[in-house]
Amino acid sequence: MAKYIGALDLGTTSNRFIIFNHEGQVVGLDQMEHEQIFPKPGWVEHDPLEIWKNTQSVIRGALEKSGVSGTDLAAIGITNQRETAVMWDRHTGTPYANAIVWQCTRTDGICNRLSSEGGQDRFREKTGLPIATYFSGPKVRWILDNVPDARDAADKGEALFGTIETWIIWWLTGGPDGGAHVTDVTNASRTLLMNLETLQWDPEILNIMGIPPQVLPRIVPSIDQNTWGHTQKTGPLNATIPVCGALGDQQAALVGQACFDIGDAKNTYGTGCFLLLNTGNTPVPSTKGLLTTVGYQMRGEQPVFCLEGSIAIAGALVQWLRDNLGLISSAPEIEELARTVDDSAGAYVVPAFSGLFAPYWRSDARGAIVGLTRFVNKGHLARAVLESTAYQSRDIVEAMNQDSGVDLTQLKVDGGMVTNNLLMQFQADVLDVTVIRPQVTETTALGAAYAAGLAVNFWSGLKELRKNWAVDHTWHPQMDEKHREEGYRYWQKAVRRTFNWIE
Fold this sequence. Notes:
The structure is a single chain. With 503 residues, the protein is α+β, with helices and mostly antiparallel strands. It is 33% helix and 22% strand. It has helices at 48-66, 108-116, 124-127, 136-146, 150-156, 164-172, 185-188, 203-209, 249-256, 315-323, 333-338, 378-404, 421-431, 443-455, 462-468, 481-497; strands at residues 4-10, 14-20, 26-33, 45-46, 73-80, 86-89, 99-100, 159-162, 182-184, 194-195, 200-201, 218-220, 229-230, 242-248, 265-269, 273-280, 291-296, 304-311, 348-350, 368-370, 410-414, 434-438, 471-475. Helix 1 (48-66) crosses helix 6, helix 4 crosses helix 5 (150-156) and helix 12 (378-404) crosses helix 13. The N and C termini lie far apart (61 Å).
């Protein structure tokens, strides 16, 4: 019997392959970064072929480092950076262009035209989403309009579209030689093209967007006993293994954190920051700038829905401090630098590099540092960078409390930034709730592993997964209400300063 589950974590800045045992513990891991391509201000791209090449490398690397054979794996699950769009030739696998990354703002004109004809929320009732550059549907339209040969190939049925999990599943299961062209419901729910009621592509929206349906993948459950395909013996696993689990990265973290009950919430601190609240089998419409999205679906069962608050820049702001300003040489150094001061000395950093996501949805905003005096030094800036992530998360929680009608009482956290104890304490302080970090912080990859493992009965059900979850550390609020509310009031003031920068 196979002893492990493999999980591909196809992130914004790197690809990882992680091997988990039955207790949900990591037994093998390999990781490779891929290039971030910025052709113009506001444009962000990835090379899809580099992502596929690195995917093969990290699979081989994790197997080699752990001494695990491909045949020891029961199944493969995949989680991915959502909303990033790829279009390629179905016969050769050659992309028509680089992937357009979720952070990219090049579709601003398309989105403005769509909004001018029916408002920013014209598709929200069907999709749960506002019209925004964030989502992949407008990116498909941009490729069709601007990339030579793409429209003609799409009309002829020779082109395929997918988000990153679709692209990699297609290659893993054969590529041009019969590869499965599928997307799971969580990723499909982020395209602005899927109807939340039917869980299928919406013909009316496709017509309005000018997207031919034949380019789109088949929508499948996140946890699917009907295996989509198998890895190839000639591939990096050197074995025939079922591919049957997929979740967008934030939904994967929800599953990895065992947030299976209504009211459970988690926040992932990665390149961006994403807070999801389980709302059960009924989609809850948002009036406060949040997204209504699919959390996960098992085959034969009703989907579980979530309210989501999406923040574009969180860990990426630390990278900016490191790479663009050179104030630190590695990301972990920011905590040490921030601890050289007691507070931010009134400085605030609003990282609206690609506009602001939830709850504002302002593509006209741009980043700003405000409240500067001669007293402010690099320690204060480091602290303001960390505090901006916590304040952005509070913006989301305020909206979520109003939309759901239930006040958040505790928050499970995961992602690369949760090793920063200063940030986690400040998060508890500004939210005035308990913050909980689990023992296994690789919750995104773990969620993908759970999806595949449930599909092949490697795990018996959600009850068994709950037993795997355990607390590593808990932070309780220590800030008095006066300081908490004053700091947040100035944060909101700083955010408003970024509006209307792009005319």
